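Raw record, unedited: Fucose-specific lectin
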Amino acid sequence: MSLGYLLVVISSLCLTSCIQPASCASLDAFWTDRAVQIVAQDPVTGDIIYSSCNSNKTVIFPIEKPNVLEVTLKPRNGTALAAAGWSTDDKIVASIVWQTETNALVNGYYECDNDSGKLVRAGDWDMTAEAEIQDIHNETGLSFNVLGEQEGYRAFYHNQASDVMMLCYTTSTGWVDGGTVSQDRRPGTALASAHHGSRNISVVFPRNKDDIEVSQLWKSPNEWALETFPTPLNDSYTNDTSAGYIFREGDFSPQFALPSWDVDVESIGMSIDASRDRSVFYIGADKKLYQVAENKGKWEMASNRSQEIWPVADEPSSSLAVAYESYKGSVWVYYWSNNSIVQAHMNDTGVWQTAVTLPEEPHKAETKEKTPGPVEPSGLSTGAKAGIGVGVGVGALLAGGLLVLLWMRRRKRRASASVDNADVAEVPASIVVSPVSQFPSPALNSPKKVERAETSEMNGQDQPAELEHNNVYHELPGHDGR
């Protein structure tokens, strides 16, 4: 075989295998008191891969030999991902949402095998079939929250008109249509949410080339208040307001702008702290991480951080995942930098720590945090790295092609041995519509008790009423989504 022919073949393989939409690098994360849990999608195979669920404080995310999520309802390549979960006395429980090739939205329920660090599938269910919903955007964003034993799950998505919609689950109802969160139809499918308590929920998404929109749950379970920043809306609008009747303040001069904001950003993240102040995170067109923070109902840009704290992302406007522990105010942000997943972390005193690269194996976990620096290629052609780069030069394409060929050989060998090397028992497939009768309702086994701080409103428009609460509440894991 001539060298020229080989180069053509390699280039073709690279073009077909590596250049894929940025959505192939989907990420999501959720907090537990053992360690943050992360899910991502392999952009070559479409597999959902995840961090080792037996991680202890330090997140272990295997890339060369990834943890592959067992599914029966296959995710489409490029799906958004949304995950939530909690820890019991002896294991992590994860509930993960994805979109299939037929546009259905699926919820998978998994429990951790602590010996192997693998998630064991208990079942996956077509949520939209049970809720009798067919109107789903073919590239919908996704976000997912666990609210508690009584309130259950909330899943957020886009319909074909780009309205933001909600699905609700409790053990008594199963999955049902939760109605509209916002009818303000806008470009972009990035979507995230955060909650404080069982019903105080905010959903965030792009509005236009200048602004971000937030829809916040009011005192009524079905009424959401809309707000935008930096440019505010010119009136009070809710989820009942039709798209053609929602306008921003025309004569208002914003106090700040969103740096390098891209309305088609791959994903967006949100956190909320003990005082109910929210933060929105995104990666700009300049590959830098940005934070818009709320302070007593007023939105403003947070200070930029050094590259040691917020490393530059591999791609502009790319995916990130945000996890948070609201009652302490801790935040974790994950994204691809230098061909690895990095962790940016703000501790419970409000101080951002030096970023770290997630180790692939427990023995590689660093006891001392250090700045992610240049690293040797790890050989992960499984896709978590391939397919993120677009518009690279011919030389890079050829190099990537070689990596893809090597990966294909390794993957084939691993696949042939996967049955013999399995670390966890096979769970029989059971395609049912809902885990209503089979599994416990979503709740922490031993929720932490926190004294409630003085009541403060989440935003300043028309003073939405505070939800009913007791003097002590049980906080659930923070979560966000794409």
